[in-house]
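Input.
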Amino acid sequence: MPSSSADLARWRAEVQTLPPWLRRSIGTASELSTVQQIVKQRQIHTICEEGRCPNRGECYSQQTASFLLMGPICTRSCGFCQVDKGHAPMPLDPQEAQKVAEAVKLLGLKYVVLTAVARDDLDDGGASGFADTIAAIRAVNPTTQVEVLTPDFWSGKDAQQQQKNRIATVVAVKPACYNHNIETVARLQDRVRRGAKYQRSLDVLAHVKAIDPTIPTKSGLMLGHGETEAEIIQTLQDLRSIDCDRLTMGQYMRPSLEHLPVVKYWTPDEFTHLGEIAQELGFKHVRSAPLVRSSYHAGE
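Output.
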């Protein structure tokens, strides 16, 4: 948030200069308050709220929501992300899986996305949290489909094998889709995704396919950090080279003055053009528009 009157004036000016296609209602108060109340009562979190997603009202009305597991504090500090960062993440809630399952049932959700902050402090990087929550949801909501959006599960010791083991833990419970976002092009990774690597993210999706090729894989990009069209296309080709099935592309919108500035606002026509290229490259499901986010229309 802006820390001074000068910062506040700058922030207001920046918000006011948003292109018209990035301005939209977040949904009705009733759609938001019902979910917020159930989530708050159980002390669980959604990335819809923590990330202030512009589509959350629409998703809630379509009986879809994205839960944020293992607390709202991330051990990494990516330059684009709204989620809080810190070296002392919250202790795990042993009842979280059951609380999420109960919320899913109360809200009548047909499709759920489970994501999590990076928990580099945990022995398994949080992989068991995904598996346990999927099992809990299925125990009380057997018809609800569950997609996962995981971090890269990287660790400093025996990192590559640890990453494979952690991914295998999640794959073993057969999510409806396995999503891991590459976020930006190779050249901009260090600036945008502090602590993550381009090849490492490709490896996540490749490992999923190697373990269980029947599980659809998915990735996403946030455009607006200074990437070129040629770099975007190369990224799409790299994703297709490891059989990534689904793709989302949306516009990066600066959460605060402390985050990276927007270099370019891509137009709706440019997003449509890039989406057509993605389809030509063989992605089976493509969502490409300024307000698209990782879980947008995930249930489709």
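The first strand starts at residue 45 and ends at 46.
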